[in-house]
Amino acid sequence: MACSSLVKLNASTSPWIGHQSFNQRSRSCRQAAPRRVAVVRAGAYSDELVKTAKTIASPGRGILAIDESNATCGKRLSSIGLDNTEVNRQAYRQLLLTTPGLGQYISGAILFEETLYQSTTDGKKFVDCLREENIVPGIKVDKGLVPLPGSNNESWCQGLDGLASRSAEYYKQGARFAKWRTVVSIPCGPSALAVKEAAWGLARYAGISQDNGLVPIVEPEILLDGDHPIERTLEVAERVWSEVFYYLAENNVMFEGILLKPSMVTPGAEHKERASPDTIAKYTLTMLNRRVPPAVPGIMFLSGGQSEMEATLNLNAMNQSPNPWHVSFSYARALQNSVLKTWQGRPENIEAAQKALLSRAKANSLAQLGRYSADGESDDAKKGMFVKGYTY
């Protein structure tokens, strides 16, 4: 493997940080004592990872997340009276991924494993449909949440076993970035155990992904559940991201080749007072500036059950002045809700549903550029989508 030109130093590896003086090191070398050396990130994919991350974090564009599990996709389909069959899932995803002009606003699409290997009814691979629009195909690689023993009724994310071989196969199929979602619950603590487990799992996944050519999206979702104030969310978010970056560095993850998918810093969904977009932007950017190195190319926010309009307004508020990173979106429900309601499973509604997708994608593109206005938004776009204890 070729060595990258990017060198990463941290306190545990650098000979210049917190260790002996030069003369002391020289004497210890003569005594054949163990030496600490700077870590150089080695990997055949280093340059490609940086290029992929920059492509996804391009001005006016964000990520379309359609990586719902088959069970969750079935819930979406049932809301419009369709059965959860592979044919119906394929039809819906074909509607989304073949939308003409989607690449003007969307730079990446996160797919479920089934979708990565699917084709249109005409036989064209979905990954090829995306490439033609200059959209980077991505893949969800985690295996879901399970109870975390010894915690306060919290969860941990499984999927590290076999991840390297799966990632290599996903790369061959055309995926160029990956997503791993774990969660942190404020009403449940969060416990030190849950935070450490989330951070360590994300770091191991990120390292494995980069070694196999996939840009890792790092996503420790801080759930909206709870009645806590925004100050409590900020406190927890800072703690979580501090731990995440500590373990990313410990695992020699190249920051220039990752993307983040954080929750916005908001009050709990059941808190008595709502926060304005300006307040949410202030607290969220405070957290990011305190915790995220400028080497990271992009911050791609999750919507987390906010209404379509809320998610767009909040993103717009965060882009009213320059940021050290590309601040954009990686939305699922906040891009798809209007599409489903327009489609209703009927072939004659496909064109109208695709226009609904373009409309929401354009709105968030404008928000990424700080130019969005909510004038003319529909009542449906204003409806919240929070689901307590939501799972994918």
Describe the structure.
The chain is of the alpha/beta class and 392 residues long. α10 (277-291) packs across α11. The chain has an 8-stranded parallel β-barrel, surrounded by 7 helices. The chain has helices at 22-30, 46-56, 70-78, 86-97, 113-116, 126-132, 163-173, 192-211, 230-250, 277-291, 308-318, 333-343, 350-368; strands at 3-8, 39-42, 62-66, 106-111, 136-140, 145-147, 155-157, 177-184, 215-222, 259-260, 298-301, 326-331. Mean pLDDT is 88; it is low at 1-33. β11 (298-301), α11 and β12 (326-331) form a beta-alpha-beta unit.
Descriptors:
single chain, 392 residues, alpha/beta, 8-stranded parallel barrel, two-stranded antiparallel sheet, 12 strands, globular
Number of strands: 12
Class from secondary-structure proportions: alpha/beta
* Shape, per Cα inertia axes: globular
What kind of sheet is the major sheet?
Answer: 8 strands, parallel, barrel
Mean pLDDT over all positions: 88
Catalogue the unreliable spans.
1-33
First-residue to last-residue Cα separation? 36 Å
Strand order of the largest sheet: 3-4-5-8-9-10-11-12
- Secondary-structure element order, as H and E? EHEHEHHEHHEEEHEHEHEHEHEHH
Sheet-strand content, in percent, reads: 15-25%
Counted by DSSP, the helix tally is: 13
In short:
The chain is 41% helix and 15% strand. With 392 residues, it is of the alpha/beta class. The strands form three sheets. An eight-stranded parallel barrel has the order 3-4-5-8-9-10-11-12, surrounded by seven helices. A two-stranded antiparallel sheet has the order 1-2. It has a two-stranded antiparallel sheet with strand order 6-7.
